[in-house]
Amino acid sequence: MGLSEAEKTYVLHGVEENLRVDGRDREEYRPMELETDVVSHAFGSARLRLANTDVLVAVKIEVDAPFPERPYEGKLEFFVDCSFSSMITWVLNKMKPQMASSPMNSHMASKKMLAKERTIKMISMDIGLPSSSANATPNFEGRGGEVLAAEISNCLSSAYCSSLSFDLTKLCILQGKKCWKLYVDILILECGGNLFDAISIAVKVALRNTQVPRVKCIDMDGNNVEISVCHDMFDCQRLNVENAPVMVTVCKIGDKCIVDPDVAEEQCSVGSVVVAVSGNRFSTVLQTGMGSLHPLTLVDCLKMGHKVGQKLDEAVKEVLKESLRGGDVGFIK
């Protein structure tokens, strides 16, 4: 439902006075809640809630052949889905006793009951209710959801394509023969604004939560390679996401720029820039929305995105450290 002109004026005046409708200043994020290991049948998973925005990320891995032009690297593929029916299908698939593409099927099968319990718990938290599903938002109607999903997926692929952001060589098993392929599945459970930022953080946490099994080559005859995957769940390695990018959406409202826009603020925005920050550098920049930005305004957006992105990245890293010490829930404030 769109805002009235009076409501838009109220939002605009609040931004100009550096006192937004919910009490935040222009560079302030809403509190986030992060949870890891939410999907038992995935190799890594994370769920992030940012106010009314709720996203779930699960990582699957399989053995594949590397690209001929990149024999030293593994593969990373993103898939974004915001349809309610696909979300239900995905959750039900996680209740199956085995994953066809998983090299650790025997261990995953032993967790069948645990997976069901987690799934029931997730559904009880209103994940599966149509009233809280992403396609209740007008942006997801018709082909709008497909376009947005493709835009997010392409932005993530661009942000992670550089070795300075994510080292794909760590996914190499045998040069030119075998590598790990990571499938990062992203489900938008509810859209309450600022999807890019929420998804980028959830992806980074899910990748850090991913456990990659150790492998060894047991037979090699020409181009035919046979490898053995270690089935010990404790004999695995974690992915290094130290420089994995986080995205900051900077919205132009009136003459000012803000970060972490809610749904109402997004409707008042004349243009937005998504800035992916990796360490102290930009990994990608994407302009969204129908409006255009003056070059000087674009520079201001980039400066704000870089400044806030570095602070956000440090906060995420602190939560990751706590998670590795045994906790599975963290808060970013």
UniProtKB/TrEMBL annotation:
Main localization (coarse): cytoplasm
Cellular localisation: Cytoplasm; Nucleus, Nucleolus
- Keyword list, A-Z: Cytoplasm, Exosome
A Pfam family found in this protein is RNase_PH
Q: Which CDD domains match?
A: RNase_PH_RRP42
For molecular function, the Gene Ontology terms on record are: mRNA 3'-UTR AU-rich region binding
What InterPro entries does this protein map onto?
ExoRNase_PH_dom1, ExoRNase_PH_dom2, ExoRNase_PH_dom2_sf, Exosome_comp_Rrp42_subfam, PNPase/RNase_PH_dom_sf, Ribosomal_Su5_D2-typ_SF
GO cellular component, as recorded: cytoplasmic exosome (RNase complex); nuclear exosome (RNase complex); nucleolus
One of the GO biological process terms: U1 snRNA 3'-end processing
Which positions fall inside the Exoribonuclease phosphorolytic domain? 28-86, 122-213, 244-307
Q: Which PANTHER family match?
A: EXOSOME COMPLEX COMPONENT RRP42, EXOSOME COMPLEX EXONUCLEASE RIBOSOMAL RNA PROCESSING PROTEIN
- Family designation: Belongs to the RNase PH family.
Protein name (Swiss-Prot/TrEMBL): Ribosomal RNA-processing protein 42
Q: What is the native source organism of this protein?
A: Acanthoscelides obtectus (Bean weevil)
